[in-house]
């Protein structure tokens, strides 16, 4: 493991060390400084962050619970590796769960929920205008996070958060293309309008269509760029 896998600058002593260690390790995974298959070493991370082992151990347990890492018998926790077939399975499941989230969110939606979604959409629109792919991915994840939270079902949230994290890991240097960003923005617009419209079944269908389109474009991109996906298996 290299010297600078973790960014220790946000770690300060005091309460909440687990939270901070969690955030630093999670950032390293999502930014791929810790690539799929990398070992999450408690003693090594404790040394890098200059904190004791116990908060690091707890942070890693949380990361495993979120599905970003998994335990192995001989190497301890490692960052999950997700191949194309598994990624497609994740999207199949996500389609159903995002549909459910949209249905429940529509029943529960008040003006605060709609306002949050509108604000997210505006920021997302600006990001797409300026071609900022990183910000697009962030705001896209936040959009679905708002709907998930509004749905008010903890089990559903946990499952969706896990799928979303695994998708981010699998999406290496991004398969996102300009056309994809515009389509996502338009579909989010339709979904906000459906939630505001108040018919849970309509919102569910719109959400499912959005994820179906993502799965199909992923499949096409993978076929067009086979190498790109293959290298995920090699660490
Ligand atoms: Zn989306």
From TrEMBL:
<dbReference type="InterPro" id="IPR036388">
    <property type="entry name" value="WH-like_DNA-bd_sf"/>
</dbReference>
<protein>
    <submittedName>
        <fullName>DNA-binding GntR family transcriptional regulator</fullName>
    </submittedName>
</protein>
<dbReference type="Pfam" id="PF00392">
    <property type="entry name" value="GntR"/>
</dbReference>
<keyword id="KW-0805">Transcription regulation</keyword>
<dbReference type="Pfam" id="PF07729">
    <property type="entry name" value="FCD"/>
</dbReference>
<dbReference type="GO" id="GO:0003700">
    <property type="term" value="F:DNA-binding transcription factor activity"/>
</dbReference>
<keyword id="KW-0804">Transcription</keyword>
<feature type="domain" description="HTH gntR-type">
    <location>
        <begin position="15"/>
        <end position="82"/>
    </location>
</feature>
<dbReference type="InterPro" id="IPR000524">
    <property type="entry name" value="Tscrpt_reg_HTH_GntR"/>
</dbReference>
<dbReference type="InterPro" id="IPR008920">
    <property type="entry name" value="TF_FadR/GntR_C"/>
</dbReference>
<dbReference type="InterPro" id="IPR036390">
    <property type="entry name" value="WH_DNA-bd_sf"/>
</dbReference>
<dbReference type="InterPro" id="IPR011711">
    <property type="entry name" value="GntR_C"/>
</dbReference>
<keyword id="KW-0238">DNA-binding</keyword>
<dbReference type="GO" id="GO:0003677">
    <property type="term" value="F:DNA binding"/>
</dbReference>
């Amino acid at each position: 493991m290299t010297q600078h896998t973790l960014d220790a600058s946000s770690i300060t002593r005091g309460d909440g060390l687990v939270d901070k260690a969690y955030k630093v390790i999670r950032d390293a995974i999502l930014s791929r400084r810790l690539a799929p298959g990398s070992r999450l070493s408690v003693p090594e991370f404790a040394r890098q962050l200059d904190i004791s082992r116990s908060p690091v151990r707890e942070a890693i347990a949380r990361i495993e619970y979120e599905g970003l890492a998994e335990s192995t018998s001989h190497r301890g926790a490692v960052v999950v590796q997700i191949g194309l077939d598994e990624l497609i399975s994740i999207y199949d499941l996500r389609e159903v769960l995002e549909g459910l989230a949209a249905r429940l969110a529509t029943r529960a939606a008040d003006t605060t929920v709609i306002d949050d979604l509108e604000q997210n959409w505006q920021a997302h629109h600006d990001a797409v205008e300026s071609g900022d792919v990183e910000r697009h991915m962030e705001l896209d994840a936040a959009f679905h996070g708002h709907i998930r939270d509004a749905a008010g079902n903890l089990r559903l949230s946990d499952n969706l958060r896990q799928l979303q994290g695994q998708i981010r890991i699998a999406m290496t240097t991004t398969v996102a293309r300009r056309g994809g960003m515009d389509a996502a923005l338009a579909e989010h617009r339709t979904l906000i309008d459906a939630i505001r419209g108040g018919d849970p079944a309509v919102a569910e269908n719109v959400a499912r269509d959005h994820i179906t389109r993502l799965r199909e474009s992923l499949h096409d991109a993978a076929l067009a760029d086979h190498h790109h996906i293959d290298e995920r298996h090699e660490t």
